[in-house]
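Researcher: Please translate sequence to structure tokens.
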Amino acid sequence: MNQPQNKLLFMSQQHVNLMNQRLAADSASLQICKGFDRAYQVAYELDRDGATVWWTMEFDPASGVRFSLQPPRQDDSLVLLKGSYRVVVDVSRRTKAGETIQMPLAASGNLGVFEIVKSAFAAAQKAAAIDTEFPEV
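Model: Translation complete:
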């Protein structure tokens, strides 16, 4: 009898790799990004017990949307969202379960990036949706 496979851990390197594989094949988000005048970034800087966890999305006209666990470039293409890792993971878990909850993050940087990338962000979310297991927080 086959053992059930374990789900990937939410925002682990393996999860990010699989999302990027799906995004590389996603024509919808790539087509939207091709209309951008340059690359843009949305990054989450999350405090996890005194250590920083980075979740960075890049929206590039040449390559489309990509996720990273690395810090973003610090320039005017960036909107930065800061908050607690534990709270963001909990809200993400609850949102996936169907609750509607405002993400408690402080935004800084170029807030206009949200408006520019919103369609590509939505297309990327759809293309890269993977059933994952949330870490204990």
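Researcher: Any highlights?
Model: The two ends are 33 Å apart (CA to CA).
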